[in-house]
Amino acid sequence: MKCEEAEIGISMYIDRALRDTDVPQLFQHLAQCATCRSFLGMMLDLRREIASTLDPEPSRSLDRRILTLRARRAGIGSGITSALRTLWIHRLAVPLPAAAMLALVLLTVSVVSYSLWSKASSEPQKPEVIYMLRMPAVEVQAVPQAATPSH
Questions:
Q1: Which end of the chain is more exposed for a tag (fewer CB within 10 A), N or C?
Q2: Where are the domains of the chain?
Q3: Helices and strands, counts by H and E, the chain
Q4: Other C-beta atoms within 10 Å of 147: how many?
């Protein structure tokens, strides 16, 4: 195995993408090559460093600079109107209409349900009438009929 192949194999091994059949060949090369062992150590250290760092939080000034740069490239201009336009385009374009639609739906549902509830509560309630009939108990007995002659 050449060192270039070993470096690719090391990267794949660290990412757990190296086939099991290629692992012994890689370790055989690592046992013989100090350069590739050093490369393996550097890759493991790099992976440890990347895993230990947190995602940096961009500052608000960077956010503003990026938005104004984008506005300048689009030819929007500068000043208060540019800032408002940028704010509208990037911050409120979707959430504000969605919130307005949600408020309209909630208002409609509230009005309809209140009108149905008030209509139902304003109508006089008729008492529910249940009729019960009592019938005397009758005992029925089956009487066998005499056999009739057939013609």
A1: C
A2: 3-52, 60-117
A3: 6, 0
A4: 6
pLDDT score, position 39: 92
Q: Determine phi and psi for 40, rounding to 5 degrees.
A: -60, -45
DSSP code, position 79: S
Q: In angstroms, rounded to a whole number, what is the distance separating the alpha carbons of residues 47 and 42?
A: 9
pLDDT confidence band for 34 (50 / 70 / 90):
very high
Element (H, E) at 60: helix 60-74
Distance CA 60, CA 97 (A): 25
Tens digits of residue pLDDT in 9-30 = 998 888 888 888 989 999 999 9
Residue-wise pLDDT tens digits, 91-127: 655 666 777 888 999 999 998 888 877 766 666 666 6
Collect all residues with Cβ–Cβ distance below 8 Å to 77 and sequence separation of at least 6: 71
Written as six digits, the tokens of 143 are 């009487």
Distance, in Å, from the CA atom of 36 to the CA atom of 151, rounded to the nearest integer, reads 118
Contact 9, 26 (CB under 8 A): yes
